Amino acid sequence: MEDVATSNIIHTLPNELLTLIFEAGSVLTYPSLVEPKSPFVPITVKKVSSFMNTVMHVCHRWRQVAIHTPALWTTLHISRSRKALDNLPSVKDFRNPMPWVTEHLMRSQCLPLDISLDCRHISIKSVFNQLIPESHRWRSLVITIPSVQDLPNALSSLKKIPAPALETLEITSLKYHDSIAPNLTSFFRGGLSPNLSHVRLNRVSLSWLAFPLKGLTTLDLRFVIWPTFPHLAEMLSGSPNLQNLILHIDNTAAKLLDRRGRAAINIPSLRSLEIRLFSQGSPTICPFLQIFSIPALESLTLREVTSSDWCRILVYFRVNCTSYPVLRHLRLSCIRGLISVDSSAVRAFPQLTHLTLNGIYSSAFCRLLVDEKTDDGYRVPVWPNMTSLSIRGDVDLNVNLLERAIIARRRMGRALMNVDLDHRKPSED
Predict the structure, then answer these.
(1) Torsion sign over Cα 100, 104, 105, 109
(2) pTM for this structure?
(3) What are phi and psi of 373, to 5 degrees?
């Protein structure tokens, strides 16, 4: 009886409320990429069932509400399973337009489009033939390819295509590259995408982008085919509005991005920097920090560094802390091994207001926060401006010690206004 009553309530919801529910649900079914820690392991695509497909099969009323709500048809996840590919009657069917894509384009009317392409089992040229007439509506374009060698075919249709509303571009190769990029003319040249502000490249070549990108605010580079240091400097010099930079680096970058006495790349507007180093040898993070002059940096994220590299990082920031006058947010993720946390950490990041620890033994930091000043010869105040502490993925979290730190900070007049705890495994974000 309870299920029947609940069902009746659902069917009495007004169309306006149903529309809002459908709009919220439609953004929850975006396919995600599961990235392994090693760049040499292929990325996998995690798919979820279509929310809209479910809604359309509930009842006639829900179907009619969905059909007549353009906002529900603006997200296109274009892919085909291997099984569906094998079941196609002929090659001609492989190259034919996808009817449901045409249906989405029609029902979305004139609204901006968010497009995701999984190129493994589709005819990318046929799909782009369907999408290009609506390129003026593209808001985001996410392209996933099997390997870097497949990209020229995937992007050959985009050389002269205007995308004036495009804000986000993401390109991912599922397999790692051999550091050799296939020949490919840059796309979106000549101001064809003037509003492009967010670019993410994963395991592909950076040089394919038509730099400079004057409106670029976020650049996310993950194990790409790196250019040389002079080439990188030349590309970034034309992006004066860059605010967020994410670098996932492997051994090949250490040689190519060597400054060799050259001036650092000046990015005066950069507010946030994330560095993740996957090293199978001697490279450390510090040389990559020295690549850039970033005086406006407010937030630094360091992922998967070793305990020895952490010590080098502390030395680097103690020596160069005046070069980062507004650095106030430090995020540390999955540092391997026990790390030393004493006055050197406070002196390296003296202005800290926000500290985020993910997959790290947090007790070392909590012990430090209990005292007003460091218990050594330096006797420096322990982050007097800190107001926020986030601890995630620490299976050995000492709650009693954390409570002592919270109480002690409050008595000092340095209360932690926000404490965020998560006992689950370390986040991959």
Answers:
(1) positive
(2) 0.89
(3) -130, 160
